[in-house]
Design brief:
The protein is an alpha+beta fold. The chain has two domains: 69 residues, no CATH class; 35 residues, no CATH class. 50% of the residues lie in helices and 16% in strands. The chain has a two-stranded antiparallel sheet. Strands 3-4 form a two-stranded antiparallel sheet.
């Protein structure tokens, strides 16, 4: 017996013409916000807020960047400008390190010895290890 396997299951259903459910919600909320701006602020000044709000609504509903919704592009742009892009390691003010080595059981019951190494000793140890 043959079964019909669904194709394109990652595509959203169209509910009103070419609009998906989320696009329809963006259009209704953005249109309502633009209407509220238009009715509450005097006419010449309302266009200062109305044009960017309308452009954002149209972009969210209809524009796709690299086959992805405009909201993904907008969130990536916000993340790009808010998260630092360069990581710097400040190694000048590091505290001295304590290294535990195995030794005889004279100092401790566990057989471990604590040694405090300076930065010079650590760099010499690193050079010796890098040579081998």
């Amino acid at each position: 017996m043959r079964y019909k396997v669904p194709q394109n299951i990652d595509m959203q259903d169209r509910i009103l013409g070419p609009l998906t459910m989320i696009q329809f919600i963006y259009a209704v909320v953005g249109g309502g916000f633009c209407y509220g701006i238009y009715m509450s602020i005097p006419k010449p000044f309302s266009f200062v807020l109305l044009i960017p709000a309308g452009a954002l609504t149209v972009a969210l509903v209809f524009i796709k960047v690299n086959e992805r919704p405009f909201l993904d592009f907008l969130m990536s742009m916000v993340q790009y400008f808010t998260i630092p892009r360069e990581r710097v390691w400040h190694h000048e003010n590091l505290p001295e390190m304590t290294v535990q080595t195995y030794g005889t059981q004279k100092n401790n019951q566990t057989g471990m010895q604590n040694k405090v190494l300076s930065h010079d000793q650590i760099s010499e140890l690193a050079k010796k290890l890098d040579k081998n």
